[in-house]
Automatic annotation (TrEMBL):
Pfam families according to UniProt: Glycos_transf_4
InterPro entries: Glycosyl_transferase_4 (IPR000715), PNAcMuramoyl-5peptid_Trfase_CS (IPR018480)
Cofactor(s), names only, from the UniProt record: Mg(2+)
One GO molecular-function entry: phosphotransferase activity, for other substituted phosphate groups
Gene Ontology biological process terms from the UniProt entry: cell wall macromolecule biosynthetic process; cell wall organization; lipopolysaccharide biosynthetic process
Membrane topology classification: Multi-pass membrane protein
Chain segments annotated as transmembrane: 6-26, 46-66, 72-88, 100-117, 129-148, 160-178, 190-208, 215-234, 240-265, 298-317, 323-342
Organism: Anaerosalibacter bizertensis
Keywords of this entry: Cell membrane, Magnesium, Membrane, Metal-binding, Transferase, Transmembrane, Transmembrane helix
Protein name: Undecaprenyl/decaprenyl-phosphate alpha-N-acetylglucosaminyl 1-phosphate transferase
Entry GO CC: plasma membrane
Length: 359
C-alpha cells in the first residue's frame, strides 16, 4: 500500500504548492475566464491554467516513482503536447481544428511508445479468443484517445466537477489494475502508481477549484486529464486478455462518456450539429431541478463513484458475469438518462444556448 500512497501524496502536495503559482501565471499571460453573458455560472473573472499545476504534479511525480521507459516518455511527451494546446486556448483561444491536430499528434506519440489497442477479447468465447486489430489498431487507438480527451473537457462545467470525476476515475483504475495484476503478469504496478499520481494531483487542486472556485483548470487541465486517463485505460486494462478489457474503461469513465454520447444523440435527434453546445448535459438538468452547484457536483461525484464500483466488480467477475453486470449498468444508465431528459426531441429549445460551464 505504501507503494501507492507515497506517490499519491507527493502529487497532492506538489499540486497544492503549484496551483497558486499557476494562478499568478494565468494573470500574467491573460488566461482569465471573463463572464460575458448571463449563461455563465460565475459572475466575476476567474483565472484559468489550474491544469498547469495538475500537469506539473503528475509529470514530476511520475518521473520520481516510475521507470523512465519508452511508454512513460511517450505519455510525458504526448501529455505535454496537449498542455501546450490548452495553454494557447486558455490564453488566446485555439480553433477546434487546431485542437484536433494537437490531439492527433499527441495520440500518435503514444502509439509510437507502444501505447495502443492491439486486440479486443471476445467475451462470448469459452477460451477468451483474441481478435487482433492489425490495420485498425492505430485508428481505433487515436479515436479512443481523442474521444476520452474531449469527453472529460465537455463535463468541465461546474466548480470542481472535472477534477473530482478524474480523481474518482483514477482511483477506480488503481483497483481495477490491482485485480488485473495476475492477468498481466504483475505489469500493472506502474499503472496503479500513475493512476494514484493522477488522483493525487487532482486532490491537491480541488481546494482551490471546489465551489466557490478561485481558479479553473481550463482546457490545460481538462484535456490533459482526459488524455492521461485514456492512456491509463489502454495500458492498464485494454492490454489485458481478460474479457473486461473493453468494458471496464467505459464503465470507469461512464459519467463523461455517457453524458457526451447522450449529447451527440440529443443533437442529432433535434437536427443540430453534434458540435453545437446546449444546456442539456446532466449537470444542467440537475441545476434546473433547483440544486445548488455544490449539491450537483456532489451528486455527480456519487454517480461517478457508483460507476467505479461497478467497474471494479466487473474486473473481479468471470466472463459471463462481467457481460451481465455491464449490460445492467448500461440499461440503467439509459433509463435514467431518458427520465432526466438527457435524450429528448425538444426541437423548440433555443439553439443559441451555450454550456454554462467553462473549460
Amino acid at each position: 500500500m505504501e507503494k501507492f500512497l507515497i506517490p499519491f501524496f507527493t502529487a497532492t502536495f506538489i499540486s497544492l504548492f503549484m496551483t497558486p503559482v499557476a494562478k499568478k501565471i494565468a494573470y500574467k499571460i491573460g488566461a482569465i475566464d471573463i463572464p460575458k453573458d448571463s449563461r455563465r455560472v460565475h459572475k466575476k473573472p476567474i483565472p484559468l491554467l489550474g491544469g498547469l499545476a495538475i500537469y506539473i504534479a503528475t509529470i514530476v511525480s511520475a518521473v520520481i516513482f516510475l521507470p523512465l521507459d519508452k511508454t512513460l516518455v511517450s505519455i510525458i511527451i504526448g501529455g505535454s503536447i496537449i498542455v501546450v494546446s490548452g495553454i494557447i486556448d486558455d490564453s488566446m483561444d485555439l480553433s477546434p481544428k487546431m485542437k484536433l491536430v494537437f490531439q492527433v499528434v499527441a495520440s500518435l506519440v503514444l502509439v509510437l511508445g507502444d501505447v495502443k489497442i492491439d486486440f479486443i477479447t471476445n467475451p462470448f468465447s469459452k477460451e477468451n479468443a483474441l481478435l487482433f486489430l492489425k490495420g485498425f489498431s492505430v485508428p481505433l487507438t487515436i479515436f479512443w484517445i481523442v474521444g476520452i480527451t474531449n469527453t472529460l473537457n465537455l463535463i468541465d462545467g461546474l466548480d470542481g466537477l472535472a477534477a473530482g470525476v478524474a480523481m474518482i476515475s483514477s482511483l477506480s483504475f488503481v483497483f481495477v489494475a490491482y485485480n488485473a495484476n495476475d492477468l498481466m503478469n504483475g505489469s500493472s504496478t506502474s499503472i496503479m502508481i500513475i493512476s494514484a499520481i493522477i488522483a493525487g494531483a487532482c486532490l491537491g487542486f480541488l481546494p482551490f477549484n471546489f465551489n466557490p472556485a478561485k481558479i479553473f483548470m481550463g482546457d490545460t487541465g481538462a484535456l490533459f486529464l482526459g488524455f492521461m486517463l485514456s492512456a491509463v485505460a489502454i495500458e492498464g486494462v485494454m492490454k489485458s486478455v481478460a474479457t473486461i478489457a473493453i468494458v471496464v474503461p467505459i464503465i470507469v469513465l461512464g459519467l463523461p462518456i455517457f453524458d457526451t454520447t447522450f449529447a451527440i444523440f440529443r443533437r442529432m435527434l433535434n437536427g443540430k450539429s453534434i458540435m453545437e453546445a446546449d444546456k442539456g448535459h446532466l449537470h444542467h438538468k440537475l441545476l434546473q431541478r433547483g440544486l445548488s452547484q455544490r449539491q450537483t457536483v456532489l451528486i455527480l461525484y456519487l454517480i461517478s463513484g457508483v460507476f467505479g464500483i461497478c467497474a471494479v466488480a466487473i474486473s473481479k467477475a468471470n466472463s459471463r458475469q462481467s457481460v451481465i453486470i455491464a449490460g445492467i449498468v448500461i440499461l440503467f444508465t439509459i433509463f435514467f438518462a431518458v427520465k432526466l431528459g438527457l435524450i429528448d426531441m425538444r426541437k423548440g429549445e433555443d439553439s443559441s444556448n451555450r454550456d454554462n460551464g467553462r473549460k
